[in-house]
Amino acid sequence: MSDDKRPIDPWGSTLPADYETLMTEFGIEQMTNELVSAFPLTHRLLRRKVEFGHRDLWRIVESIKKNEAYAVMSGIKPTGDFHLGTMMTAEEIIFYQSLSDKSVAHYCIADLEALADNGIPLEESHEIAVGNVADLLALGLDARRAYVYKQSEEKVVQRLAFVFSTSVTFSTLEAIYGPKHIKYYFSALIQVGDIMLPQTEEHGGPKPVLVPVGIDQDPHIRLSRDIAKKFRLVPPSAVFHKLTRSLLGEEKMSKRNPMSMMTLSDNPKLAEKKIWSALTGGRGTVEEQRRLGGEPEKCVVFELMTNHFIEEDEELRKVYLECRTGARLCGDCKSQLADIVSKFLMKHQQKKEGLTDLARSMLEGRR
Ligand code: SF4
After folding, report:
1. Is the CB of residue 280 below 6 angstroms from any atom belonging to ligand 1?
2. Across 278-294, average pLDDT
3. Ligand 1 within 6 A of CB of 75
4. Which residues fall within 8 angstroms of residue 70, CB to CB, at 6 or more apart?
5. What pTM was estimated for this model as a whole?
6. Can you give the CATH number for the domain in which 267 is found?
7. I need a surface site. Which of 30, 129, 165, 270 has the fewest CB within 10 A?
8. Residue 2, pLDDT score
9. What average pLDDT does the segment 62-77 reach?
């Protein structure tokens, strides 16, 4: 393996140093106020520009306006419980699905990847996947317009990956992803298959497809768009969100570091404990914080409020101003957030329990 240092790596855990530079470098379009207000409904991730960039998102706006079919697609590697990063993508799928009754949400359970990358046997990842789908349903996915499948059982995706491989050279893959083990290139082609699945005859033929992703997944989007053009499919649209930082702020939230992530299955007491240890933008002493104010831009607690847990813009603005002016201390924020999160988790876990049978039938009904 080389020591190639790409600014973004779909399999890595580092955070981008600067989103603006990446957007310019890779030709990602900025999320504008005009685009945000073109949707019939709003969402905090859009309004607050947590979704900061896109490729061809106007195509989805057009589909909604013309009442035409489109798909929203994403997936999860079933290696563990939903954490806040995977929850963000789930919320995006649910939101874009909700904007039209002509939309279908496609959700891929990447169990082959969990086997190849993490050595998790298919029977084990199946049980994890049931929990993941129950999370998705509890967050609000409309099961009547959803296609949830496992990579290991979806032969069409495997066929597509093979067909697409005939149009891509090794040097193209190397130019997009850098020098990698062949299994990564193979997995990239499978992901292109997942992204194109909604456009197959089995799913109603070519149509716009929106993929909500972190910017680290853009290489898959670029590859998919290139391939789509070669096969006369609609190049998939993408909306990019900022990556969720780990609670200690040092890298992106991932299952690799369980103590630095919050999952939707965490016991509320454990979640509160994690919040109290999270990184803040606070000063060294109370006196300093009162005098200088805190730095919400650096603060993971403020980021959790912005991205996930405070719906009201006015309330968030109040937190920001009170922090900046030193009227608020980090303990105030942590105690407020711990309270919100523990109520959210209790409610979510109760809902999820009631949806586990439906999740299982959605996954097993295709066998
Ligand atoms: Fe973050 Fe709140 Fe501390 Fe400000 S006061 S740095 S927002 S935890």
Report:
1. yes
2. 96
3. no
4. 59, 60, 63, 64, 100, 102, 103, 207, 208, 209, 210
5. 0.91
6. 1.10.240.10
7. 30
8. 40
9. 97
